[in-house]
Amino acid sequence: MTKTVTTRYDVAEHLRTPEEMAAYLEACLEEADGDAAFIAKALGDIARAKGMSQVARDSGLSRESLYKALSGERSPGFDTILKVVRALGLKLHAEAARS
Question: Does residue 69 sit in helix, strand or coil?
Fold first, then answer.
């Protein structure tokens, strides 16, 4: 019998373009159901895809603090989220909720 070899799936390996990154974030925002740590993890995935060192430089935050803030284990401050979103070249937007 042949052994099946599996590898861990890493979404960051599949986020290649700004459009893919934006679509991923949009999907995560829809699925988060108010879970800020989930959104932080999604931003961490995008940051890893773009390069954490580059995102750290562009956001003015240290790599270590980015890894902690975007680990999905905590909810970072909104100012951190805004800095990261800007550094990723993304924009947050709002629309009226459907009733």
Answer: helix
Q: Which amino acid is residue 81, in one-letter code?
A: I
Position 71 in a domain? yes
Q: Is residue 20 part of a domain?
A: yes
Q: Does residue 3 lie in a domain region?
A: no
- What Rg, from alpha-carbon coordinates, does the chain have? 15
Classify residue 40: in a domain, yes or no. Answer: yes
37: tokens are 């740590």
For residue 46, give the nearest of 6, 96, 3, 88 by alpha carbon.
88
Which regions of the chain are under pLDDT 50? none
Domain region containing 65: 16-87
Give the CA distances from residue 39 to residues 1, 3, 4, 5, 66, in Å, rounded to whole numbers and listed in that order. 42, 36, 33, 31, 14
* Beta carbons within 8 Å of 10's beta carbon, 6+ residues apart: 48
Helix count and strand count (H, E) for the chain: 5, 0
